[in-house]
């Protein structure tokens, strides 16, 4: 097991037609958004212009949820969804997509040979990490305390709002306990990603 903390200040910021996107995490580390050679990418976007087309991510699967505000996301020729904070929509990256409603969203994009998902979480609580894969924790408040247990080892980290901690495991059991002061509606977004089992 190993983990890393990515500060909000280290996010890569890009402007797009409808607002601004912060790249929070990309895997593997040498991968490039522009070259589309990544396996997994986590980002958050501020949507300022309604109805702007989403970028083409053909060959990828996308998961999206609003962190603040609500969104009506429309996939032309497929389905549409009205999402409140922490409700998740999953779709193919090649689908022509637009959304309506000013909001801040949170995105997970991965290749089809991986499985992934997003979920909002209130604290305190305990999350079991993927046995072989990545489990991420995106802080939605300050002073979010994480206790990472891997076998006999215990690690403690404190995140501020917008920070991201990702745990990578390869067959070992690992869990993370989250706690924070106050009672916000949701204190963290949990990101799960693992390799899809091969079919015989």
Relevant terms:
2 domains, mainly beta, 57% strand, Jelly Rolls, 18 strands, 200 residues, 6-stranded antiparallel sheet, globular, 0% helix
Notes on the structure:
With 200 residues, the chain is mainly beta. The protein folds into two domains: 2-112, Jelly Rolls (Sandwich), CATH 2.60.120.10; 115-195, Sandwich (Jelly Rolls), CATH 2.60.120.10. Helices cover 0% and strands 57% of the residues. It has strands spanning 2-6, 12-16, 19-27, 40-47, 61-68, 71-75, 80-83, 89-92, 97-100, 103-110, 114-121, 125-128, 132-139, 144-150, 153-159, 164-170, 175-179, 188-195. The strands form four sheets. The protein has a six-stranded antiparallel sheet, with no helix packed on it. It has a five-stranded antiparallel sheet with strand order 1-16-13-18-11, with no helix packed on it. Strands 12-17-14-15 form a four-stranded antiparallel sheet, with no helix packed on it. It is globular.
Summarize the structure.
The protein is mostly beta strands and 200 residues long. Helix content is 0%, strand content 57%.
**Tally of distinct domains:** 2
Approximately how much helix is present in the residues?
A: under 10%
Low-confidence stretches: none
Structural class: mainly beta
Q: For the CA atoms, what is the radius of gyration? A: 17 Å
What profile does the largest beta sheet have?
Answer: 6 strands, antiparallel
């Amino acid at each position: 097991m190993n983990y890393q903390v990515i500060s909000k200040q280290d996010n890569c910021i890009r402007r797009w037609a409808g607002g601004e996107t912060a790249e929070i995490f990309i895997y593997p580390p040498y991968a490039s958004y522009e070259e589309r050679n990544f396996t997994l990418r986590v980002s958050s976007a501020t949507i300022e212009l309604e109805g702007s087309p989403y970028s083409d991510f053909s060959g990828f699967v996308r998961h999206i949820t609003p962190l603040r505000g609500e969104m009506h996301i429309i996939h032309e020729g497929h389905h549409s969804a009205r999402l409140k904070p922490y409700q998740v929509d999953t779709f193919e990256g090649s689908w022509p997509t637009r959304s309506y409603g000013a909001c801040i969203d949170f995105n997970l994009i991965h290749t089809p040979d991986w499985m992934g998902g997003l979920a909002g979480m209130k604290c305190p609580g305990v999350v079991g990490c993927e046995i072989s894969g990545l489990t991420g924790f995106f802080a939605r408040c300050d002073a979010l305390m994480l206790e990472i247990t891997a076998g006999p080892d215990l690690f403690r980290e404190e995140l501020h709002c917008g920070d991201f901690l990702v745990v990578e495991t390869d067959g070992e059991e690992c869990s993370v306990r989250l706690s924070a002061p106050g009672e916000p509606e949701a204190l963290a977004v949990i990101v799960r990603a693992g390799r899809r089992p091969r079919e015989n």
